[in-house]
Structure formats: structure tokens, C-alpha cells
Design a protein that fits this description.
Layout lengths: L4 E3 L2 E3 L4 E8 L9 E2 L11 E5 L2 E14 L3 E8 L5 H11 L5 E13 L5 E14 L11 E2 L14 H18 L4 H22 L15 H12 L6 H8 L28 H4 L1 E4 L4 E7 L22 E7 L1 E10 H6 L2 H24 L17 E3 L8 H8 L4 H4 L3 E4 L1 H7 L11 E2 L9 E2 L2 E5 L13 E4 L4 E5 L4 E5 L8 E14 L5 E5 L4
Parallel strand pairs: 2-10, 4-9, 5-9, 11-21, 15-24, 16-19
Antiparallel strand pairs: 1-8, 2-3, 3-7, 5-6, 6-7, 8-9, 12-13, 14-23, 16-20, 17-18, 18-19, 20-24, 21-23, 22-23
Length: 524
């Protein structure tokens, strides 16, 4: 399962217009990847502009997205009049505290590069973020411009700043007058220091008035200060007043802490995907050519007619991609105070999809889901020679009914309940069929072949098929485009929740049933 990865020179003006290069072609980024020209073919604006890839913090929109000879050029607007975060980001950019752009994408076509790393040939671009440290060292802001909206006039300065500027003028005049060299150096140093102070204060964004003037209670003052600067900007007295109110009728105002730790349920997956052969496609289905045995060849004399080949050993098998979709709601509070929550949502959806896929790969019907291995009627079976139990004779008989080529590449698959029964089986000399591995990292074996636990396989019972053995290259899984994610902040806004939709396309079928053998608990 691929995940959204982060890759990433630009300009911004005081009105919020912003442009730059979000990706540079043909150069290696910090992750060892190289984006190739044409990788963004088909990408069209508008695209979301996020802060540090956080979907809960949009700061603007990209209105132009185009490939150039240098890389991916983007132009857009920071919504500084509507979003406080956008105004904060613009201030950071102008102060050169934040200088990077970065893209959020899923790689749809890659090529391995000799010596390590990948060539990104095609990507699905979802968003472009403003970041402090981009993945690519050359994706930086190119310049910061100021227009009329960004100029400071004398009427904008408070009396303290006006006095400071008058002091600076006096220091400058004194430093320019012919005096001792030491005195002149001191005046120049004072001038530089005061200029730095005024520049820093002039660059600060004015804070809007939160409360009406007048005498306020300590609790309201602390609350107003919290709204202006957040909890990190409160002093000790304000923080104590804010967290515990002394109003006997109003109770206590104490915000609970939201931990960044995520408590996860255990998710178990069947291993069929790790065993099967995997292919990818951008089409709704894939047709494979199949070949059976060709047995028309015959020995003949010089004047004997060669017999005609009967039957047609070549055929076709179509694997249709099936759609798997879900959505999940998450509270806006979690998104705001626990940034790791969105990554955990993505992981939870991927795990849910993997769980549903695993079940289908074993027992899927092929109607709305992929075709499962155990539901394929062309796979033969071997009886266990017992109506209710697994027998060692049945396992050995079925094992050697497999063609030698596939038998030597096969893997045993069964669930944990069946494994517990098989571990006690012995041959006629009293040796356990199940052999423990003598080397670290090597799997335990049954009749010399590895055993894999698959929790979706059936339990042992009369007329059941609890064991499967085969060369799993005969089972083909076809993945469509990478998982599609859509964040919907509107439909559940009244409930203070964000809904995240996800869709994935996948198909599967048995292409070579002769590479498998099922084991049935029965006498015949």
C-alpha cells in the first residue's frame, strides 16, 4: 500500500500572492528520489495550499500549476484576510523563517535507479504545502515583495516607536560628527542595535482587539490572552487563572490534555498477498492468455500424414477489478490537538482494506469481490482418509500428487486451529511431520516445505477444506490505481467532525489451478 510522500523556490507579496517551484526536475532530493519531466502530466488547478501537509490547516489555494524546464511552477494566494494561519505564514515567509515548498503525492509510476533511490516518472499530486524544511534542498522561496498594503506610515507607529526613531536620528547625527574614533564606533553600534529593534517591531502583525476596553475579571483577561497568543503565550499567573476558575457558580474551566499517543486495536491479516503474484493496471480489467497442454505431436514415417491437433490449449482469463470503499468520521478536536490522528486515520483505513482483501483472497465469490482461492472449482482436492480428522497419510498422499515442479515451490496454508492439530502428526516411524527450523529466520517446515498461518482458512471439520498447498504464483492479484482519499469537512460540520472517504480498486483470480491442491476432511 503506497502512502502520500513528501517532496519539494518561490515569491510572496504582502497581499498574499505567492509563487515558486514546488518540485525540481532531474536532481536528487533528500530521500534519494529524482522527479523526471512529465511526472505531473495531467495535473490541473486548483490545488489545496496547506501548512506543513496538515489537512486541518489550509492556508490558501494554488491557481496555476504547470511544468517548466526547471520543475513544477505553482502560483496562488495566501488567504490572509480570511485565515489567521495564512497571515502568520506570510509573516514567517517575509522574515525568511519559512522558505520551502513541498508536495503531497502518490507515486503511480517509478523506476529503480542503480545505486539506490527511485526515478518518479508519474505521480498523482494532491496538494502543495508551505514547509520549513522541504524534501528537496532547491525548492525555496525566491523573493519576498512588498506593496502598498505592506508599507508602514508614520501614523501607524505608536509614541514609543516615534521616540525611538527620534533617538536613532540623534545617534546617527552624533556618530557622523567629527569626534574620537571610539565614540564614533559606539554611536554606530547603538544605531545598528536600535534599528534592529524597530525593524523587528514593525514586522509584527497587529493583533485585533478581542475584548472591549474596560475593567475585566482575571478569568476574562486570561481567556482573551489565550485567544490572542494561545496557551504557550500565557504567563504563570494567567495560565493558573485560565485553567482553574474561582467562580463558585460557573464551576471550573479546565481543558483536558489530548495525548499524542494512539491506542490501537490488534489487526490481523491473511498472508495471501505476500505469497501471490502481484500486477498493476489503470484499466477496469485485465485479460490474460492461458495455455494448457499441447499433445498433438506424434511419431510418423516419411509417407504418413501428420495427425491433426485436436482441441485448443490456448484460452483467456479476465480479472475484473472490484471497488472497495469506506468512510470514517473524526472529531475536529482530534485533528486540531492531535496532529498524528490524521496519519492514524489513513493507517486505519489501509488496515481495514487489507483485512477485507485478505478474506476475499481466500473465500471471495467473484461477484462484488475478487475470486478467492478456496472457491475456485478447478482446484483439485485430496481426501484425508478420515471423516473428521487430519491424517498424516492424507497429507503425504496429497503432497506427492502435485507435479514435482510445483511441489518443490509450494507453501502450506492453514489457520491456527489446524496448525495445532498438524503439529502432533507423526509418520510410521514415530517422527513428527512438522520439523522445527534449525536456522534463525527460516520458517518451520511440513514435509520439507514452509508453513504459513492464514486466519481466514476454514477450521477442521467433516467435509471441510482446512489445508491448501500450492505454488502461489498461480494466484494473480491486480491492483488498480492507488487508494483514493477525499477529506470532507462540510457534511459533518454541525457535529464538529470531518469525514474522510477512501476507495480502492483490486481484483484477483486463480490463473493456474493445477498449481494448487486442497485437502478435504473426508473418507473419499
Amino acid at each position: 500500500m503506497q502512502r502520500i510522500e513528501v517532496k519539494a523556490t518561490w515569491t510572496v507579496d504582502a497581499a498574499g500572492a505567492i509563487e515558486g517551484f514546488a518540485s525540481i526536475f532531474d536532481t536528487v532530493d533528500r530521500g534519494g528520489d529524482i522527479v523526471r519531466p512529465g511526472a505531473f502530466k495531467g495535473v490541473s488547478p486548483p490545488l489545496p495550499m496547506l501548512w506543513d501537509h496538515n489537512p486541518a490547516e489550509p492556508i490558501g489555494v494554488w491557481e496555476v500549476v504547470q511544468e517548466t524546464a526547471q520543475g513544477l511552477l505553482v502560483k496562488g494566494r495566501l488567504l490572509i484576510a480570511d485565515l489567521a494561519k495564512a497571515a502568520e505564514v506570510r509573516a514567517l515567509i517575509l522574515a525568511q523563517a519559512v522558505t520551502g515548498l513541498s508536495i503531497g503525492y502518490i507515486a503511480t509510476k517509478t523506476m529503480p535507479r542503480k545505486g539506490g533511490g527511485r526515478d518518479l516518472v508519474a505521480v498523482d499530486l494532491f496538494e502543495v504545502s508551505v514547509v520549513a524544511v522541504p524534501m528537496h534542498p532547491d525548492t525555496r522561496i525566491t523573493q519576498a515583495k512588498a506593496n502598498e498594503a505592506g508599507k508602514v506610515t508614520m501614523s501607524d507607529l505608536d509614541p514609543a516607536m516615534l521616540q525611538a526613531m527620534n533617538d536613532l536620528v540623534a545617534v546617527a547625527i552624533a556618530a557622523a560628527m567629527p569626534k574620537e574614533t571610539k565614540a564614533a564606533d559606539t554611536g554606530a553600534a547603538q544605531l545598528a542595535a536600535r534599528m534592529d529593534q524597530i525593524e523587528a517591531k514593525a514586522n509584527r502583525l497587529p493583533a485585533p482587539a478581542i475584548v472591549a476596553p474596560g475593567e475585566l475579571s482575571a478569568e476574562k483577561k486570561a481567556w482573551a490572552q489565550y485567544l490572542r497568543v494561545g496557551s504557550q503565550g500565557l504567563n504563570d499567573a494567567e495560565r493558573k487563572t485560565f485553567m482553574v476558575s474561582s467562580d463558585p457558580q460557573g464551576g471550573y474551566l479546565a481543558q483536558p490534555e489530548i495525548s499524542g499517543e494512539i491506542i490501537r486495536d490488534l489487526i490481523e491479516f491473511s498472508p495471501i498477498r505476500s505469497l501471490a503474484s502481484i500486477a498493476g493496471t489503470s484499466q477496469p480489467s485485465v485479460i490474460y492468455t492461458t495455455r494448457g497442454l499441447l499433445s498433438g505431436a506424434a511419431w510418423h514415417g516419411e509417407v504418413v500424414t501428420v495427425p491433426e491437433t485436436t482441441g485448443n490449449p490456448f484460452g483467456q482469463r479476465e480479472i475484473i477489478l472490484r471497488r472497495l470503499s469506506t468512510f470514517v468520521d473524526i472529531s475536529n478536536q482530534n485533528l486540531l490537538f492531535a496532529p498524528a490522528a490524521i496519519a492514524e486515520v489513513n493507517a486505519a483505513i489501509a488496515e481495514d482494506f487489507a483485512k477485507k482483501e485478505s478474506v476475499s483472497f481466500v473465500s471471495g465469490s467473484g461477484v462484488l469481490d475478487p475470486v478467492g482461492i478456496m472457491t475456485n472449482a478447478d482446484i483439485g482436492y485430496v481426501p484425508m482418509l478420515d471423516a473428521a480428522l487430519i491424517t498424516s497419510d492424507g497429507l503425504i498422499k496429497g503432497f506427492y500428487k502435485m507435479p514435482m515442479t510445483y511441489r518443490n515451490k509450494g507453501t502450506w496454508v492453514m489457520n491456527g486451529t489446524t496448525l495445532s492439530a498438524v503439529r502432533t502428526l507423526k509418520d510410521t516411524t514415530g517422527n513428527y511431520l512438522w520439523q522445527r527450523s534449525l536456522q534463525d529466520g527460516q520458517p518451520e517446515t511440513l514435509l520439507g516445505r514452509p508453513v504459513v498461518e492464514c486466519l481466514d482458512m476454514p477450521d477442521v471439520g467433516a467435509n471441510t477444506f482446512p489445508i491448501l498447498y500450492g505454488d502461489f504464483s498461480g494466484y494473480r492479484i491486480v491492483d488498480g490505481l492507488a487508494m483514493s482519499m477525499l477529506v470532507d469537512p462540510y457534511s459533518q460540520a454541525a457535529n464538529q467532525r470531518t469525514r474522510i472517504h477512501a476507495t480502492r480498486m483490486v481484483g484477483a483470480d486463480v490463473l493456474a489451478p493445477f498449481k494448487f491442491k486442497k485437502f478435504k476432511v473426508s473418507l473419499t
